[in-house]
Amino acid sequence: MPFRTAVRCLINPIRVVLRPSTSIRGYAAIAEARSVLEHELETIRTGGTWKGERIITSKQGPHINVDGSRGDILNFCANNYLGLSSHPQVVEAGIEALKKYGAGLSSVRFICGTQDIHKDLEQKLAKFHEREECILYASCFDANAGLFEVLLGPDDAVLSDELNHASIIDGIRLCRAKRFRYKHMDLNDLETQLKQSQSSRMRLVVTDGVFSMDGDVAPLKGICDLAEQYGALVFIDECHATGFMGPRGRGTDELLGVMDRVHIVNSTLGKALGGAAGGYTVGPKPLIDLLRQRSRPYLFSNSLPPPVVGCATRAVELLLASNEIAQSVGAKTMRFRNKMTEAGFTISGSAHPICPVMLGDARLASLMADDMLKLGVYVIGFSYPVVPKGKARIRVQISAAHTDQDIDRAVDAFIQTGRKHGVGSCPYPYLEIYLEVFNLTDFLLFCPYTV
Ligand code: PLP
After folding, report:
1. What angle do CA 445, 449, 451 make, to 5 degrees?
2. What is the phi-psi region of residue 282: left when phi exceeds 0, alpha when psi lies from -120 to 50, beta otherwise?
3. Which of 118, 271, 339, 402 is catalytic?
4. If you take atom 4 of ligand 1, which residue's CA is the nearest one?
5. Which atom of ligand 1 lies closest to the CA of 212?
């Protein structure tokens, strides 16, 4: 027995004997934590907001294999807008970079984590977006987490769309600027907030270029007009636009003719640009220089692995070389949107490849998504709290890699499952009622029907 414990035993023997040992206290703490966590998990399950993860056993693409489902599954829920995730040239570039530069840098950028390929990719991205400079991050989440704190201080103000991405919200929480939240895409409300924040030194209007739940495009022209009128800067998050919005795929700023009026752009390498991982900020040189000095996710996190840099660089090169790839998803998107609308479904958003099939009811969205998978089409139902209550939907994402036949198969599957659940226009309304009465609606899933 250690000397100190022996002395304590002599002074107060009963207390020492009754006091639980360190390991018992440790077990009790773990048991307590387990019970708190189990309770929290149960709340999520009973609240119906549990997010399961399907396991894919093939590479990303329009046709995938999913654990537990037989055969080829048609995939309509990846952000693989241009089909570059498995593009042979992109994959090859990743392999070459892996061989030449190794698996990773085991370092942050400013210690010994900057290779020539990092600088090259930054230059290409700056050129692609027609901005002065670029800085890479491990993700766009990090780019959003690292920007506002560096740019804005307590004398400044940030004006943010209420439906901005979670990473923007978190990034803004980390900065000390005054916060103003304007109603979703509401220019009148933005103007009110600009008036209210007039005493601030610097003001930044912050918006997603495209909002991922609805596929709706921010009114950037109006935002830039107001920002110029009130002397504010404009920031956009282009994760769901880079590579395919606008004639050359530069993004929503190109689509809406305001490339020279939007000051800062954050985007991802993890969606249209090859889909591996990584994010970046492009904008004025002094801002990018300051981010390299002060931005915490950049300073304190490993630099992007060479294969990831190789894949993204090839994707950007393909887009810089030709506008055809940027244009390749538009016609497919309109085919899906038009056929679904003809079939009586409501598709939110405008011409964006995010096509939310609006259903309203959360259970219906989840049941229909399950039934779609039975027909070999993988789509995901979204409900509260990811989208507002009563606005549950199945979000379909079109990729340039989908063929017309893939799209038609998805529309057919929607019509069949919709018929089972009473959504869309049914060509055999009486049949549906009979089957409902005799509890045989599953039969509708297998009714041959073509649009
Ligand atoms: N911003 C938006 C609008 C997004 O949709 C996402 C990803 O879902 C991110 C940022 C984060 O991007 P990344 O996956 O590169 O962290």
Report:
1. 125
2. beta
3. 271
4. 239
5. 5
End-to-end CA distance of the chain: 83
Percent of residues in the chain assigned helix, strand, coil, to nearest 5: 45, 15, 40
Q: Name the one residue in this structure whose structure tokens are 């609308």.
A: 341
Residues 319/128, Cβ–Cβ less than 8 Å: yes
The CA distance from 369 to 393, in Å, is 10
CA 231-233-237 angle, 5° bins: 155
The yes-or-no answer on residue 69 being catalytic is no
**Which domains does the chain possess?**
63-78+323-421 (3.90.1150.10), 88-321 (3.40.640.10)
pTM of the complete model: 0.89
Is 421 labeled as catalytic in the residue annotation?
no
CA nearest ligand 1 atom 8, residue: 239
Residue 271 bears catalytic tag: yes
Residue with tokens 């022996």: 6
Atom of ligand 1 nearest to the CA of 140: 15
pLDDT (tens, 9 = 90+) of the chain, 451 residues, equals 566 666 665 556 666 556 667 788 888 999 999 999 999 999 989 987 788 899 999 999 999 999 988 889 999 999 999 999 999 999 999 999 999 999 999 999 999 999 999 999 999 999 999 999 999 999 999 999 999 999 999 999 999 999 999 999 999 999 999 999 999 999 999 999 999 999 999 999 999 999 999 999 999 999 999 999 999 999 999 999 999 999 999 999 999 999 999 999 999 999 999 999 999 999 999 999 999 999 999 999 999 999 999 999 999 999 999 999 999 999 999 999 999 999 999 999 889 999 999 999 999 999 999 999 999 999 999 998 888 889 999 999 999 999 999 999 999 999 999 999 999 865 554 555 555 566 665 555 554 433 2
Is the separation of the CB atoms in 372 and 55 below 8 Å? no
**Which residue among 160, 165, 207 is best mutated to probe the pocket of ligand 1, counting the most ligand atoms within 8 A of its Cβ?**
165
Joined together, the tokens standing for residue 48 give 């119906």
SS3 assignment, position 258: coil
